[in-house]
Write a structure and sequence with these properties.
The protein has about 290 residues and is mainly alpha-helical. It is built from 14 helices and no strands. It has one domain.
Length: about 290
């Protein structure tokens, strides 16, 4: 496969991944369980889904693939686990739109962390777009504080920093197999929240939704993100993944009538414009 086809395939995988991830707000509104029980079942079913793929892909070398994740894989798994905890709790404390707008700054946070940690510098276009995106987030925070959404927005910000750190690790340690680390992250999530969860509460009518939440939204999204990032750069993956921002509130609006505030719409528009400008201008300069 030539480089152009690789980029197209990688981009397509990330688009489908972003679509899957964007359903998180929909499922958290659909399933009437506490956040800890939701996290337990999401981690369990997501872990089983990814484990099945890892076992199929590596077959007899599955154990070796798990051992190969090393310290970098463990740190990436820890970032993913705690980011997921922050994410689900953020969705319960603020609007889906606010969480997605803050999450859309992940490409620029990734660039900043990479520069501070590895010295890798991004283009001036990306830095300017980063400043514009952060301004968009500031607009969202401004309206959220009087509405009592500050805790949720803060959790979303912590989540974004953790995900960005994970992306930098993946970027720096490309030789490390990250799918086993993602599987470990999902199972660790279920174990960590188990003392606070009530798993029995999910065995009723919500169980089919929990299966879909763990496999399609979380497991498939994470699987495609990992596969797509192998074909394009981590920064491009994060930028395309920002499609979650307009999609997530769209599903919630269509299903539950949760209309985002005007300031959230303005902040989201600024962030998405910054992302689009960065992609278009950087590609035009190549």
């Amino acid at each position: 496969m030539d480089e152009t086809n690789q980029r197209w395939l990688g981009g397509l995988l990330i688009v489908v991944s972003a679509t899957a991830f964007s359903m998180a707000g929909f499922f958290t509104r659909l399933i009437a369980l506490d956040a800890w029980t939701l996290l337990f079942w999401r981690g369990l079913f997501g872990g089983l889904f990814i484990a099945a793929y890892v076992a199929w892909h590596h077959r007899g070398a599955t154990v070796a693939a798990v051992r190969a994740i090393g310290g970098a894989g463990l740190v990436a798994a820890a970032c993913s686990t705690f980011a997921t905890i922050c994410f689900i709790n953020a969705l319960r404390h603020t609007s889906v739109a606010d969480v997605m707008v803050i999450n859309a700054t992940a490409p620029f946070m990734t660039a900043a962390i990479a520069w501070l940690w590895t010295g890798e510098r991004e283009s001036r276009t990306t830095l300017l777009a980063s400043a514009a995106a952060l301004f968009g987030v500031a607009v969202t925070f401004d309206v959220a504080m009087p509405a009592g959404h500050l805790v949720g927005n803060a959790l979303a910000l912590v989540m974004t920093v953790l995900i960005s750190g994970m992306m930098v690790i993946i970027r720096k340690r490309r030789e490390t197999p990250m799918l086993p680390a993602a599987c470990l992250s999902a199972f660790a999530l279920a174990l960590i929240v188990l003392p606070l969860a009530t798993p029995r509460a999910g065995l009723g009518s919500d169980l089919p939704y929990l299966v879909l939440f763990g496999t399609v939204q979380f497991g498939l999204g994470l699987l495609l993100l990992t596969l797509g990032t192998r074909l394009i750069s981590a920064t491009q993956s994060a930028l395309i993944g920002s499609l979650e921002t307009p999609l997530a509130p769209l599903w919630v609006w269509l299903a539950f009538g949760e209309i985002p505030s005007l300031a959230t719409c303005i902040g989201g528009t600024i962030v998405m414009a910054a992302v689009a400008a960065d992609v278009v201008l950087n590609n035009a300069s190549r």
